[in-house]
Design a protein that fits this description.
The complex is a heterodimer of chains A (194) and B (466).
Chain A lengths: L5 E9 L6 H4 L19 H6 L14 E4 L11 H9 L3 E4 L4 H9 L4 E3 L2 H13 L4 E5 L4 E4 L2 E4 L4 H9 L5 H5 L2 H9 L2 H4 L2
Chain B lengths: L4 H9 E4 L5 E4 L2 E4 L5 H10 L9 E4 L16 H17 L2 E3 L9 H7 L8 E4 L13 E4 L2 H10 L1 E4 L3 E8 L8 H12 L7 E6 L1 H4 L3 H9 L8 E4 L3 H7 L9 H12 L10 E6 L6 E3 L7 E3 L14 H11 L14 E4 L7 H11 L9 E4 L4 H9 L2 H7 L3 E2 L20 E4 L15 E4 L2 H10 L11
Parallel strand pairs in B: 3-4, 3-6, 4-5, 6-7, 9-10, 9-12, 10-11, 15-16, 15-18, 16-17, 18-19
Antiparallel strand pairs in B: 1-2, 2-8, 13-14
């Protein structure tokens, strides 16, 4: 399985707290039985009504999305991180993430790391000023280095280790030693029929 | 030191610690719907996996189905494909399914409890963030994404990180015209939309203990709007009375034994909490959201904030007021509404419809308002028809629809148009949530929606309650 220890790429700054998954991927695009092509509809409604960084040619080809706090709140739709990943985003740096969004991103190998609000602002300012700047996120060192900015970034230790060891695809682990699952469930009164 | 319900249920369902440090948690009930599962079933096929526990899995359809015309194929080709895909998947993998035409069909978070599938002490997962609803029964229930749906289908387990527990005690009595919806909107407003991240919310206190299961479901349902993936209420006699006699509930001696176990998994009196908060019920008024997230709300007597209000996130307030077309400092009462929507997994149960019907008796929907009532399930719909609620709504000028998610989210024919303002009993007022990129949502209780439908504007339902 693929390991993820560091990511290098240009950035895309997306300011604003509490950006929900309905905005990232409006519900009407969930009416499809695959995730293919979802990236074409990222922030589609926001992009119709505002000048949006995802339309800014200076950020074309960016790999590092830099967001504010509580990114990905609301609906549990995995379509949101799926679309970001398919667009080309390989790591998200933010002040904080909604829990389900963080988990969904983890499941598809898209690390979400946090930094202080001041460092997020410095990164967003830097990218807006010099979009060609390369950002380097090192999960082991817990750093995001870009130009003269050296931000400390973190993620829960278990998630970080799973990315670095390549064990973030959980299904295989859950199917191992399945007799233990049967034993646990058989002890549950409601499974045993009370 | 005692334990919380969360700790007890978590420990009982722990299979082992995974090499990743995560907990392998057994899932007692997996609820499946059409929108978040097709890709998961495809992955099972690609790997040659079976559904590990079809006996602990139950499917229905709710998000994409029309609420007016159910003949097949649907006019919306994509919706038709989606439902056909679910029908194929439940057949191929041997999963129980309440599809169209089945008396048990409805919103997944309405039918789970109704059928007795939802029981205290279970772990419950579903590819939908409002799975927290089932916590009303003393279950540990949470929303998951499609890759986790794949994991549960294949293994009936999830790899999880532990949660902290915040107890929220609601004490005292609610005034007439103030409902469970107002309680949860107040909690979200006070603790913030990010406040619950990393926590399970335990709702306690005498006001919660007096609540019906429907009311407790409304509160647990919106835990996720406060950032908490899990919300629960300790099971008690109200819970047991609700569960008894339901199709999938234990019966006879098994029910008596079940009650003993269900009591045992409630939080101990000396349990330690990571945080403890009290809300005084008598301080609450009917609540309305004015902005673009469920934490942006005020009492019906209040005025919308200005960007300079104390504690305001200036940019967020400016942005929300601009989107909503509101002036800083404007009273929320009197805001004109174009659409009134009573429905969704938050507020589409029989008691919700009864409360709304009390308001509209002898009154009529304003000429400028399109109003619809969408029962949460076929069972709710039938019961409401039998006791005359459907007729009451129709004669007051409401459209009476079939069961489904409807106008809560823009995935089926029920949508806002342009920048319509909708008084909604649903759970999210996000930009574009109701299907129009510029549509505007005001969240409130079903009774408040009924009042707004009649008045054509946001009004204080307390002036209409007898």
């Amino acid at each position: 399985m693929q390991t993820i220890t560091n990511v290098t790429g240009r950035g895309l700054p997306l300011r604003g707290n509490d950006i929900d998954t309905d905005r990232i991927m409006p519900a009407r695009f969930l009416r499809a039985i695959t995730f293919e092509g979802l990236e074409q509809h990222l922030f589609e409604d926001d992009r119709k009504t505002t000048r949006h960084p995802f339309d800014d040619p200076r950020y074309a080809g960016a790999r590092v999305l830099v967001v504010s706090s509580n990114f990905g709140c609301g609906s549990s739709r995995e379509h949101a991180p799926q679309a970001l990943q398919r667009w080309g985003i390989t790591v998200i740096v933010g002040e904080s993430f909604a829990e389900i969004f963080f988990g969904n991103s983890f499941m598809i190998g898209l690390p979400c790391v946090t930094a202080s609000s001041e460092e997020i602002r410095r990164l967003q300012d830097l990218i807006e000023r010099s979009p060609e700047t390369e950002l380097r996120i090192d999960l082991a060192a817990g750093t995001c280095v870009a130009g003269d900015v050296r931000a400390l970034v973190s993620m829960p230790a278990n998630a970080r280790d799973a990315f670095m060891k390549g064990t973030w695809d959980t299904t295989g682990l859950l199917l191992d030693r399945y007799e233990e699952v049967d034993a646990t469930s058989a002890r549950l009164p409601y499974v045993a029929g009370f | 030191m005692g334990k919380t319900l969360l700790q007890k249920v978590w420990d009982l369902h722990t299979v082992r610690q995974l090499p990743t440090g995560q907990t392998q948690l057994f899932i007692g009930l997996h609820l499946v719907h059409e929108v978040t599962t097709p890709q998961a079933f495809d992955e099972l096929r690609a790997h040659g996996w079976k559904v590990a526990r079809p006996d602990r899995t139950f499917a229905t359809t709710d998000h994409i189905i029309p609420t007016r015309e159910l003949s097949r194929p649907f006019l919306d080709v994509m919706a038709e494909d989606m439902l056909a895909s679910l029908e194929r998947n439940v057949r191929d993998f041997g999963i129980r399914f309440a599809g169209i035409g089945d008396d048990r069909q409805g919103i997944v978070h309405v039918i789970g409890p109704e059928l007795g599938l939802t029981q205290p002490g279970m772990t419950i997962a579903c590819g939908d963030s409002h799975t927290s609803t089932h916590g009303a029964f003393g279950a540990v229930a949470f929303g998951i994404g499609t890759s986790q749906v794949r994991d549960v289908l294949a293994s009936q387990c999830l790899a999880m990180e532990p949660l902290k527990v915040r107890r929220i005690r609601v004490t005292g009595r609610l005034a007439p015209g103030v409902y469970a919806k107002d309680v949860v909107l107040t909690i979200i407003q006070r603790l913030g939309v990010r406040g619950g991240t990393g926590y399970a919310y335990e709702y306690a206190g005498d006001a919660i203990e007096r609540m019906s299961m429907d009311e407790r479901m409304t509160i647990c349902n919106m835990s996720i709007e406060g950032g908490a993936r899990v919300g629960y209420v300790n099971p008690d006699e109200t819970t047991f009375t609700y569960v008894e006699g339901r199709p999938f509930a234990p019966s006879g001696d098994a029910f008596d034994r079940a009650k003993i176990w269900w009591r045992s998994i409630a939080s101990d009196p000396d349990a330690a909490y990571d945080d403890d908060v009290e809300i005084r019920a008598e301080e609450l008024t009917p609540v309305v959201t004015w902005g673009v997230n469920p934490g942006q709300s005020i009492g019906i007597d209040g005025k919308v904030p200005t960007p300079d209000s104390a504690g305001a996130d200036r940019q967020a307030v400016r942005d929300a007021l601009d989107y909503m077309g509101l002036h800083p400092g404007q009273p929320i009462a009197g805001m004109k509404v174009d659409v009134a929507f009573i429905g969704s997994c938050t507020n589409s149960r029989l008691s919700d419809l009864r409360e709304a019907a009390r308001i509209i008796r002898g009154r009529h929907v304003a000429a400028s308002v399109k109003a619809l009532v969408v029962p949460g399930s076929v069972a709710v719909s039938r019961a409401a028809e039998q006791e005359g609620l459907a007729d009451a709504f129709r004669s007051a000028g409401f459209e009476w629809r079939g069961a489904g998610c409807s106008m809560c989210l823009g995935m089926n024919p029920d949508k806002l148009e342009g920048n319509q303002v909708c008084a909604a009993s649903s759970n999210r007022n996000f930009k574009g949530r109701q299907g129009s990129p510029t549509g505007r949502t005001l969240l409130m209780s079903p009774a408040m929606v009924a009042a707004a439908a009649v008045a054509g504007e946001v009004v204080d339902v307390r002036t209409l309650v007898n």
